[in-house]
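Entry 14. Ran structure prediction on the chain below.
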Amino acid sequence: MEAVLAGVRELLPVLRERAQETEDRRSLAPETVKALTETGFFRLLQPARFGGHEAHPLAFLTGVREIASACGSTGWVASVIGVHSWQLALFPDRAQQDVWGADPGTRMSSSYAPTGKISRVDGGYRVNGRWSFSSGCDHATWVLLGGIVPPGDDGTPADFCTFLLPAADYTIEDVWHTVGLRGTGSNDIVVDDAFVPAHRALSFNDTARCVCPGQAQNPGPLYRIPYASIFTYAITTPIIGMATGAYRAHVDYTRDRVRAAYVGVKAAEDPHSQVRVAEAAADIDSAWYALQANMRELMDLTTAGTRLPMPLRLRIRRDQVRGTALAIRAVDRLFENSGGRALTVGTPIQRFWRDAHSGRVHAINDPERALSMFGRGEFGLPLNDAMV
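Output, structure tokens:
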């Protein structure tokens, strides 16, 4: 995996230089996607049987953090597109063949909020509706959409599933005009009466139980970890990366900055500036170290074939929302410490600040739900949330 990460790091100067262009075009440049593809990054979590690396999640998340430290939008898209290879590996083999059989490099975007209408029909489902925030959809030819399947006439209970659709079954509507993460091209997916065969649906109940049909072909430990553990970190890690990029940009800028209110005094010599930098660095480190420790423990247990304890799964979610909060706090401190010139369009500090706060509003970052689940677990109360 070191070769992939080395390739990613070689791209960082280009991604940094291209960050404003990415924001202005409201989508990643094709050259950016091509370059990331050539490093092998998008195949880190793909099964080895399709030529993927089937890597430890920390290799993937480390790459995400690096990319996001250069350009927040690129890091966000790289993370959410890259993690979909892991989920497709959980689908029935026929679905995996549909996507990767002819081209193992095929990419998928997603939108999981169940905003569309799902109907049961013979052999599968009818899907209709609009799904928002499908980051990187312009660079994907399949999409993963969340939907509620109503109860069946035979007494089959309702279910929350992910549905896999090819580009021919949906249209993309360009609606992405935002204050942050502007370069992610997170546009709407519109589906008009598409038929989705049964093998292209995956139940969230199965992913929560870590028992999915794709494990028959992909039995490795990577594909026996909880959906919530890896997907939530795929949202938090780019934000940690944005905070990392903001930190590096701030330190470089502040070394030579002169405080306007104190004539001739360099900002770097201001003890208050020094304290803010120390606090921001500590917050970023704390967020990243907790993520690393949790993911290592998770994979060690899975590799050993040990049943995953619920306290660990709850701690992972707790530290995920806390990691986002710590990264946001760090970015805020750095932005406040950067002076008025940081407001200038095109400067990295203000872009990282806007991007990080835009990532924060993703539903998976709402702290109350995750922290409440952790508290319920500590008090021995029942849990019924699939996102753990």
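Residues 108 and 138 are 10 Å apart (CA to CA). Will compare against last week's run tomorrow.
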